[in-house]
Structure formats: structure tokens, C-alpha cells
Design brief:
single chain, 398 residues, Molybdenum Cofactor Biosythetic Enzyme, Chain A, Molybdopterin biosynthesis moeA protein, domain 3, Beta-clip, six-stranded mixed beta sheet
Length: 398
């Protein structure tokens, strides 16, 4: 049985040797995907000096004495329009984002002026650079803007657009096939037998996959029969980069997923990890696809996919930071537990203080829905008093 970090490193190492190909994508289709090229500024950013505020621009060196100063307003500089020249000793009305004319070095904001026809009175003494954004202030031509391996969020896409890029080179979206197992499952909202339960893991795993930039497919429920399950796995291996199984990974009489995977030609690297919840989690290959076998209990499945599936998908895409950042939290109350496995606890956060949910059952999806973080309690710890410092990851960072 592997420790969490060793098991995850095996996953990351395997993905690093099987990166997905790169493809061009429009910015509108690049959210959540991983950049596969370095983006370099081809022109300065911003491309010209411009005003950061509405007001009046002028050459501050032409002023002498104390305010107020009275200048002639010789024209208007507006965004998206040619900038008129600045006559010596005059000012231009200027708006936020408009180009600064040659010879102007400062802007006096509108609130510090009084306008009277073609004259403006400046009530303060401007200094060189006041309310001016300089050409190349963000990036000079030739400077790197974004590096390969960057996960593209809204603000990275905004920078790409500011660089005048309509398309970027990104990793192809991973294809994920999710195969829940269990005769007791039915689709949410559908009729079923009295002892049936709605299948809730699929929607969570699809949503998480989408956040990792993947295209996911919720396949048919696997029956508790060896041959049909093996056929379903074999078909999924042919169309997926990652096949995710849910349930049937333990050692019960009806837990047939592992033998069905092997019957379909899969080879498993590991199938137990020393964590709680989520011990029966498996990883391997089936054809050209990776296989991730998750426990069937909802919290166990959703946590193990967060810990293994999300880094796997990100690593396949060449994300240089496939693992979420670890933070340090302070336990807000005493915790007594049975030692032996790394505890992965659902918790609410109040600043840096963590309060573990009162129901840590592997079936309590309410606790995950309320949680802000997963808190890690060392395997050997039997008692953690209030104030204990522990590592955690924010669920928003998964």
C-alpha cells in the first residue's frame, strides 16, 4: 500500500512520458487549457503613452510660479481617434486611455481644474509622469509575457488578447470516459426500484474534468458481471485518454472492477493508497488510455479524483503546476482519531483556522458541499489538540 505522495508521483511520472499533442485554439476555446508555447510581446505594451485619467495634458516644464495656472485648451485627445498636436504653452483635453501628444509629460485630473470656454485653470502643480502610463510600461517588445505550461484562466487570456493574439497553442483537451458500477444505481430523477439510489458521482467527476480542460463522457452503468464490464472497459480504452471507474474496487463478492480491467487488458500500477477515505484507489494503463479506479462511496470517489484525477489531467496537458498549492491551517478544535492512514478531512475555513465538518462519513456529500478545504492529518496522529498546525488544500484550487 502506497503513501499518498508516492502514489501521486507515480501518476505524474507516467503522464510526463505521455503528454497530449498541442493544437491551436481560439481564445474563446482556451479557458482552463494549458499553454504549449511561450507568448512574447511583439510590440511594447502599452503601445504608446496614454492618460490614466480624464483631465488635461500639458508640458509641465512650461509652467512657472504657483497655481492656479491658466492655459488655452487647443484640442481634444480621445481614445480611438488621432491625437492633435500640442501647441507650446497650451493644454489638451484628454480622456482615459487616450494617447498623449508629443511634448506632453503630465495629466492634471479633471477634479483639479476649472474650465471657462477655451481656457482651463489648473488648481495644482503637475509633475512629470502624473497620471500617465508610459509606452512599454508593462512589457517591452521581445519580453516574455506567458510561458509554456501556464494554465490559462480569464486574466491570462486577457493578457494574450492584449498581445493581439487571437489564437494560442494549447494542449489538446483530454478525453475522459467515466464508468460507474453497481446494480443499485440509477440516473438522478429517473424512476427506480425502492432500494435504488441516484448515481451522484458522475456529475461531480464530469464537472471536475471540465475544470481541468477535459471533454468528459458519462458512460453506461457497469453491471456487476465480469464479461459485460470487461467489454465496456475495452471499448472505453479505444476512445479515451483517461478511463475512470467508480465503485467495485474493493474485495467484496460483487467487486468485479479489478478483474474486469485485467480481462480487458489493463495493467495496474497500484490499487491501494494509505489514505482515509479512499484506500481502494487504482492507477494503470489500458491500451493507450490511463485508468483510474475510484471507490464507490461518493465522498471517497470525489476526494480521490480531486487528489489523483485532477493532477493526472493537468499533467497530461503539460501543466507546470499540476498539484494544488498546499497551505497551512490551524485546527480550531480538538480532534481524536484512529491512527494508521493519512486522514483527509473536509473543513470550513475561517481565515487560517480550520473547523472539520462533524460528519466525516464517506457517504456524507453534504460535508463536501459545505467544505472550503481538505485538511491532511498525519497517519500517526491519534490526537490533534486545538491550535495544531496542519497542511491543507483549498477546494477552489483543486
Amino acid at each position: 500500500m502506497l503513501e499518498l505522495e508516492e502514489a501521486r508521483q507515480r501518476v505524474l511520472d507516467a503522464c510526463g512520458a505521455a503528454l497530449l499533442p498541442a493544437e491551436p485554439a481560439a481564445l474563446a476555446d482556451a479557458l482552463g487549457r494549458v499553454l504549449r508555447e511561450d507568448l512574447v510581446a511583439t510590440t511594447p505594451l502599452p503601445p504608446f503613452d496614454y492618460s490614466a485619467m480624464d483631465g488635461y495634458c500639458l508640458d509641465s516644464a512650461r509652467l512657472s510660479g504657483s497655481p492656479p495656472f491658466e492655459l488655452t485648451v487647443a484640442g481634444v485627445s480621445r481614445t480611438g481617434h488621432p491625437c492633435p498636436p500640442l501647441p507650446e504653452g497650451a493644454a489638451l483635453r484628454i480622456f482615459t486611455g487616450a494617447r498623449l501628444p508629443d511634448g506632453a509629460d503630465a495629466v492634471v485630473i479633471q477634479e483639479n481644474t476649472e474650465r471657462n470656454g477655451d481656457l482651463v485653470r489648473l488648481l495644482t502643480t503637475p509633475r512629470t509622469g502624473d497620471h500617465v502610463r508610459r509606452r512599454g510600461e508593462d512589457l517591452e517588445a521581445g519580453q516574455p509575457a506567458l510561458s509554456a505550461g501556464t494554465r490559462l484562466g480569464p486574466f491570462q487570456l486577457g493578457l494574450a488578447a492584449a498581445l493581439d493574439r487571437a489564437r494560442v497553442l494549447v494542449s489538446r483537451r483530454p478525453r475522459v470516459v467515466i464508468l460507474p458500477s453497481g446494480d443499485e444505481l440509477r440516473a438522478p430523477g429517473s424512476p427506480g426500484a425502492l432500494d435504488s439510489i441516484p448515481e451522484s458521482n458522475g456529475v461531480v467527476l464530469q464537472a471536475l474534468s471540465s475544470l481541468a480542460g477535459a471533454l468528459s463522457e458519462l458512460g453506461p452503468r457497469l453491471p456487476d458481471q465480469l464479461e459485460p464490464a470487461a467489454r465496456a472497459f475495452g471499448e472505453a480504452f479505444e476512445r479515451a485518454d483517461l478511463v475512470v471507474t467508480v465503485g467495485g474496487m474493493s474485495v467484496g463478492d460483487h467487486d468485479l472492477v479489478r478483474p474486469a480491467l485485467e480481462r480487458a487488458g489493463a495493467s495496474l500500477d497500484f490499487w491501494k493508497v494509505r489514505i482515509q477515505p479512499g484506500k481502494p484507489v487504482a492507477f494503470g494503463r489500458g491500451g493507450n488510455a490511463f485508468v483510474l479506479g475510484l471507490p464507490g462511496n461518493p465522498v471517497s470517489a470525489q476526494i480521490t479524483f480531486s487528489l489523483f484525477g485532477m493532477p493526472l489531467l493537468r499533467a497530461l496537458c503539460a501543466d507546470r503546476a499540476p498539484l494544488p498549492e498546499r497551505i497551512t491551517v490551524t485546527l480550531g478544535h480538538d480532534l481524536a482519531r484512529k491512527p494508521g492512514r493519512l486522514g483527509v478531512y473536509r473543513a470550513r475555513l475561517f481565515g487560517s483556522e480550520a473547523w472539520l465538518d462533524g460528519n466525516q462519513s464517506s457517504g456524507a456529500t453534504t460535508s463536501l458541499a459545505r467544505a472550503a478545504a481538505l485538511v491532511f492529518v498525519p497517519a500517526e496522529s491519534a490526537h490533534c489538540p486545538s491550535g495544531t498546525r496542519l497542511e491543507a488544500i483549498r477546494l477552489d484550487d483543486v
